[in-house]
């Protein structure tokens, strides 16, 4: 039952035999590692600068971790650091042994860590787009571009976040998330809802104005249900985009790194086995003669 649970969520054993999480249909593993590393550094600097600004200038640092936007961006940063590390190691090993199919560290790690990596990747292709839609449709105001810092920070966390999400969808070979990940999306949104009201109880403000029940319970319920439905729609859209990319990329003659090498190794093993069996049969025949 546990094995099936992991399989259905996208963490089968052996894990990622095609090296999908560390390859791209468009770039070599080395270039993919460089791109992921650049995004990881940029997102980390963005998070750090905003936290310092909120703490020193506006004195709002204590509410930094109460916003879904920041939490989602932390998820993006974490995923890109993790994927950069795995891709970098794979690229180094592939360079040292170009005729083999090297493994990357995550393939040898405990299965729960593999599943957590898959889950984190699912949030990266789902939540950033939801954040972008909700912010620009419901929350944005002229003050978004009032100062250079405000313009840069809002573009970084409310626009570029979707760019990082789209890159993971179309710029890598990462497989589409499984349908059973939808409950994960709903659970995380529900947990954040609880965090938002804990923030109100402890700090006296609503992180997002539409969460204020004084506007009307029906109004509040409509927003909550609407965002949950939007989350499912975004998930489905992301899955469709990744499924399409997986179908289109090979049709353009693009080789998936690692898969070709693995097939060669399998062919060699089969040929070697066939040669050994032939030799044994020949020896037996000679003895009979």
From TrEMBL:
The keyword Membrane applies. Residues 256-279 are annotated as: Disordered. Keywords: Membrane, Transmembrane, Transmembrane helix. The keyword Transmembrane applies. Coiled coil: none annotated. GO terms for cellular component: membrane. The chain crosses the membrane at residues 26-53, 73-94, 115-139, 145-167, 179-200, 220-238. This is Uncharacterized protein.
